[in-house]
Amino acid sequence: MLLRQCLGNSGHIAILSLHNQSRYQISDNNMNNYKRNILITGGAGFIGSHVVRLFVRKYPEYHIINLDKLTYAGNLANLSDIEQAPNYSFVKADIADLDDMRHIIRDNNIDGIIHLAAESHVDRSIRDPFTFARTNVMGTLALLQAAREYWESLPEKFEGKLFYHISTDEVYGALELTAPQGIESPFSTKASSEHHHAYGEEFFVESTPYNPHSPYSASKASSDHFVRAYHDTYGMPTLVTNCSNNYGPYQFPEKLIPLFINNIRHRKPLPVYGKGENVRDWLFVEDHARAIDLIFHKGKVADTYNIGGFNEWKNIDIIKVLIRTVDRLLGNPEGYSDSLITYVTDRAGHDLRYAIDSRKLQKELGWEPSLQFEEGIERTVKWYLDNQPWVDRITSGDYQKYYEEMYANR
Ligand SMILES: NC(=O)c1ccc[n+]([C@@H]2O[C@H](COP(=O)([O-])OP(=O)(O)OC[C@H]3O[C@@H](n4cnc5c(N)ncnc54)[C@H](O)[C@@H]3O)[C@@H](O)[C@H]2O)c1
């Protein structure tokens, strides 16, 4: 079953083999030649694909195994440029299947796990919270348990092992928007842009108590707690990072930035929740992947790091930047797409402001965003405009139905 699914979806990519002693062992790679065997979950998704690409290219001495269920959000086309690499393998599996997780981790002698697989879209979590609990909570628990059982069975036990869990700033809840006109941000980095605003005096720090509001953030919060509990209870080496909103190439076009680029291009309405006053911090996805690489190798076990862009924006201002950029790149006159903005009923329980303080990571490990937001947006818009077939494949079929239900009739 697993084998057939792999072949069907990935063709020539290294697959789970029936010929080896175990049907869960990756066939094309001699694991013993590699310095490390690293399992990256959710590698066919948006952030995961950037992390897989970075690790496959940067560490030819590591065997990178991408485990993904290929839900609507998983897309192996995101990795077509590296799928032939000798140190890359793909396995189609569900993280909530404890037995499969046991076999995959054991049979491939996994010593590091970077866990990104999740249901990730807040709007979907409002419609279907159970799927979020199943994947994000039970799936994380199954992965933790399988890793613990295997690592505890080894003579060296947890030595040289790491379970690194990727989470979100949304677990902290919402901050007040005490400065709606914007004040100067107290943070600066080499990538700070001219738009250097904060919309309140408070920021999420690593010790901010969890206070999630959406089923998505509640499920991520719960999974974070399980990861920490596995360290505190069993001594398992774990790490958690909480990151702000990512943007960049390969993001599923239900999320704000790719959705709006695509709609502007096709002259479709731009559905803005409420008045567009909600504030988010934005980080270019490759900078998140760089942070994950650094923390995986240098982070303190059992610690937590916030990762953010030092880059707060109101949704409505982002939308204006996107309109300006897309219109300019398509050769449209200034203001051509302004009339597409359409205000729709706000999302239930919509958190007003997320703002993250990632100075701990900056101070302790020397990480900073490398791109100014304007530069990152330019690269992102160009990528979506240049890769229309990628967008078209995704926005056909089921996606259309979902889109109509979510936005068209509000
Ligand atoms: N996108 C953001 O802005 C952001 C910010 C902070 C943290 N995060 C976290 O980063 C991680 C990745 O986010 P993303 O935006 O890349 O998400 P995504 O939805 O683009 O990708 C998720 C991937 O997980 C896979 N997946 C889903 N359920 C699975 C299951 N049961 N078993 C195996 N694979 C499964 C999907 O097929 C998909 O490839 C998530 O854990 C998310 O909570 C995302």
Key traits:
410 residues; alpha/beta; Rossmann fold; seven-stranded parallel beta sheet; 13 helices; 14 strands; 15% strand; globular; binds nicotinamide-adenine-dinucleotide
- Ligand kinds: nicotinamide-adenine-dinucleotide
CATH homologous superfamily annotation of the domain at 1-173 and 210-243: NAD(P)-binding Rossmann-like Domain
Radius of gyration, whole Å: 21 Å
How many helical elements? Answer: 13
Strand % is 15-25%
* Assembly state (oligomeric): single chain
CATH fold node name of the domain at 1-173 and 210-243: Rossmann fold
| Class per helix and strand makeup | alpha/beta
Q: Tell me about the biggest sheet?
A: 7 strands, parallel
Mean pLDDT: 91
Overall morphology: globular
